[in-house]
Amino acid sequence: MTDTQDIPVTDGTIPFTYEGETYETYYKIFGDLATRMRPPLVVLHGGPGLVHNAYVALGALARTHGVPVILYDQLGNGRSTHLRAKPPAFWTIGLFLAELESLLAHFGVQDAYDLLGHSWGGVLGAELAVRGRAGGLRHLVLSNSLPSAALWGQSVGQLLAAFPKEVHEGMAAGMGDRKKYREALRQLHAVHGCLVEPIPPEFDYTLDQAAGEDGDPTVPSAPILAGWSIVDRLHLVKVPTLVINGRKDIAQDFVVAPFSERIPKVKWVTFENSSHTPFLEERERYIQLVGDFLKLDA
After folding, report:
1. Alpha-carbon radius of gyration of the chain
2. Alpha-carbon distance 233 to 116, whole Å?
3. Kind and range of the H or E element at 141?
4. Bridge partners, residue 111, by sequence
């Protein structure tokens, strides 16, 4: 079974102090950290500006493989502190890495842990690994992620060629016209985001926290990834790494290929019946693949 029924779940908030101010980071843990026999898996959600909810299915690893799973909402998102008054320059990769390090230290797992970063979360996971700040990182999973903003933009541009004019206009409007943007995202993601029908409510909810009419546009509007690339630093990833994408993914093969070409210890798996969310589209296989990978010697 890959559901999370009967798995112990705890949640709450922890303090995160950054540049002299203290905020709250919301977390949800599947399994028991106190009695763990395996390093916990920390899941970095997509975005920037999304939330943990779409990733709850990964909590099943606590049952199937004895791996505690820590989910959290990154600062500015979901049930963590929102900071609408902060300027765009406040929101940086360094900020989110500091929050991740704060979470690892709070739970006392910094000496032995695994990371799974999905989409934008993979940016954070890879950056932590190459900056020499990973500490006790044992395994890295880069799921449906990107090694450069340019490759991601190229892929989106290619895929949009098959969509009608209103989708192009909505994507171009971005957070400046959230109604048009959310509808464009809905159409794009129906083909390249999540192929499950009907769309899982946790997937819709996650997108709505950023692009919905009642969502918070602060983080997704910030130019965090403008000009960003990690391609020339990927050789600095020293831990075993699993790269995942879907056959109909926005993270097309040419997008994720640099991970496979440049990370020394790497395995690349493409889910043939998935797009951008194989943990929802091919859930059981995804859980098995990730769980088995985390067993490998680091």
Report:
1. 18
2. 19
3. strand 137-143
4. none
Q: How does strand 113-118 pair with strand 69-73?
A: unpaired
Residue 1 has pLDDT above 60, yes or no: no
CA distance 65 to 13: 26
Question: 3-class DSSP state for residue 151?
Answer: helix
Catalytic residues: 119, 249, 276
Give which of 123, 175, 16 is closest to 80, Cα–Cα.
16
Residues contacting 202, CB < 8 A, separation 6+:
53, 54, 56
Q: How many CB atoms lie within 10 A of CB 159?
A: 16
Rounded to whole angstroms, how far apart are CA atoms 73 and 53?
Answer: 9
**Contact of 72 with 25, CB cutoff 8 Å:** yes
Please, are residues 143 and 116 in contact by the beta-carbon 8 Å criterion?
yes
Is 134 in a helix, a strand, or coil? Answer: coil
Mean pLDDT of 197-203: 95
Mean pLDDT of the 205-213 span: 92
* Residue 199, burial from CB neighbour count under 10 angstroms (0-12, 13-18, 19+): middle
Q: Are 37 and 61 spatial neighbours (Cβ–Cβ below 8 Å)? A: no
For the record, the structure tokens of 83 come out as 């900071």
Does residue 3 have a pLDDT over 80? Answer: no
Give whole-number Cα distances, 169 to 4, 165, 179, 210, in Å: 40, 6, 11, 18
- Residue pLDDT, tens place only, 22-66: 999 999 999 999 999 999 999 999 999 999 999 999 999 999 999
